[in-house]
């Protein structure tokens, strides 16, 4: 069932790619390509590090790629909570990665999860701003859009919320990804 869901999500991302091309929306097309490739990351990580992702974890990861990609077709502009959802979802993926890495190394995940999520969140916002500024400078459609200071603040708050979710629920939902000390 999970493999079918993964396949369906990949097809949906490819559909967004096609719609992005038809609408001449480079943001949607480029983001769809990146998201499509990113849906294979759990397989690559699992193969290289023998992590053992559960089926629901793969679908959860792929769903983050889909919600971000679909957002490029309009929900980021039209649905007030869409950006909050995608930032929280992405932050739980980054935070989960930091959490599992720390647990595998026998370390306290709390400072690492917060550092990774907040640090990468700030870098993402900076990249988003720079891409938008450069696209404006050359009168091009940006592949990422920055909506101003309040948007940046809310993005970082929802990134932090995602990190906190990982800290509260990480041991419960991610324990299959690291060896347990019994």
Molecular structure report:
This protein is mainly alpha-helical. The protein folds into 2 domains: 1-79, no CATH class; 80-182, no CATH class. It has 8 helices and no strands. The protein has helices at residues 2-22, 26-38, 41-49, 55-71, 75-78, 82-104, 109-137, 149-173. The protein is globular, with a radius of gyration of 17 Å. The protein starts with a helix and ends in a 9-residue tail after the last helix. The mean pLDDT is 93.
Structural features:
mainly alpha; 2 domains
What is Rg?
A: 17 Å
Number of helices: 8
Portion of residues within helices: over 70%
Distance between the termini: 32 Å
Overall pLDDT: 93
Uncertain segments are: none
Most strands sheet:
none
Shape estimate: globular
Sum this structure up briefly.
The protein is built from eight helices and no strands. It has 182 residues and is mainly alpha-helical. It is globular.
Summarize the helices and strands and which ones pair or pack.
Layout: H1 2-22, H2 26-38, H3 41-49, H4 55-71, H5 75-78, H6 82-104, H7 109-137, H8 149-173
Helix pairs in contact: 1-2, 1-4, 2-4, 4-6, 6-7, 6-8, 7-8
């Amino acid at each position: 069932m999970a493999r079918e869901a993964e396949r369906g999500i990949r097809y949906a991302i490819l559909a967004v790619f096609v719609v992005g091309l038809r609408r001449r929306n480079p943001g949607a097309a480029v983001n769809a390509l990146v998201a499509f490739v990113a849906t294979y990351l759990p397989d690559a990580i699992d193969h290289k590090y023998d992590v053992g992702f559960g089926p629901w974890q793969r679908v959860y990861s792929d769903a983050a790629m889909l919600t971000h990609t679909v957002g490029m077709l309009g929900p980021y502009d039209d649905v007030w909570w869409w950006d909050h959802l995608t930032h929280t979802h992405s932050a739980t993926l980054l935070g989960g990665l930091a959490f599992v890495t720390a647990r595998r190394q026998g370390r306290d995940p709390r400072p690492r999860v917060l550092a990774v999520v907040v640090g990468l969140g700030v870098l993402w916002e900076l990249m988003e701003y720079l891409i938008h500024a450069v696209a404006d400078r050359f009168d091009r459609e940006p592949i990422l859009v920055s909506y101003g200071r309040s948007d940046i603040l809310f993005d970082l708050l929802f990134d932090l919320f995602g990190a906190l979710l990982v800290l509260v629920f990480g041991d419960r939902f991610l324990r299959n990804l690291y060896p347990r000390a019994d």
